[in-house]
Write a structure and sequence with these properties.
334 residues; alpha/beta; five-stranded mixed beta sheet; 16 helices
Length: 334
Amino acid sequence: MNMPRRLALKCAVLAAACCCGASFAQTKEVTFAHQDMLVPLRLVMESGEVEKATGYKINWRMFSGGGDVIRAMASGDVQMGEVGSSPLTAAASQGQDVRLFWISADIADAEALVARNGSGIEGMKDLVGKKVATPFVSTAHYQLMAGMKMDGVDARRVNVMNMRPPEIAAAWERGDIDATFIWDPVLSRIKSSGKVIATSGGIGQRGAPTFEGIVVNAKWAAANEPFMIAFVKALNRANEEYRASAASWTADSPQVKAMAKWTKADPKDVLATMALYRFPTAAEQLSPTWLGGGAAKAMADTAAFLKEQGRVQAVKPDYKDFVATVYVEKAMGN
């Protein structure tokens, strides 16, 4: 073999090694888009247990809403994230290659419609002519519109305004809005000067349930299955810790401080807010209520709403293909 050919071969081998190294490095790092809901995932973020168990570097990035999370995942900048059922459904309806693999919370009563004191709002029908803020395409938006429809309120006669949570908090302080359908930590801040008109749990029981879930890019998940399994194990451990010991936590407990740190919530509000959610057990995750069928059904119902609102162009015939049970199954079986 002459010298130029040997040199070319050596360069090719080095290039291949570099590519393999880059590919390996890529699989050992992940960006996770989180929000400010008070859920046990924050304990996993604080502990670093997944990083220790897998050797992966996790870039935790905070976003203001599920719509922002979905857009970041669509761009490729983010591989995993937590979103509500409404933005998840929007992503699935638009063909985004994501999979719901964990129900981080049954929203239950953790989101609510609150009317400002003195606004004259005592029920859904009183929203006519009022300024009501909520993050569009969020679970709160879905339930606000569903609640008005259930009570016969023409949404066109209500000034429904699209605002992110921090914007809602500021608008409430300025007196710019009459009501908002929102979650914590904003919800806790505004209750002292407002009245709860409806909750996500109440509207859910009437036929429009919502949930918070953790989603992942499908191809990334398939290529990083050991990480996914370790992550699910950590999520389940955090849920079990909350169930087993939260009754003894105080505002000074390390768990509460961790929750407050990652969400910017007031430690004194953490436990009361978490009590408004329900956190499904591992068995419940796989049950017909959630990943075993209920989540896909809720997505289908949400998709019909989003299409009616002009937020998606088409509804999928079935949403079960956007739900993955394999990672919970393997995590619980190991």
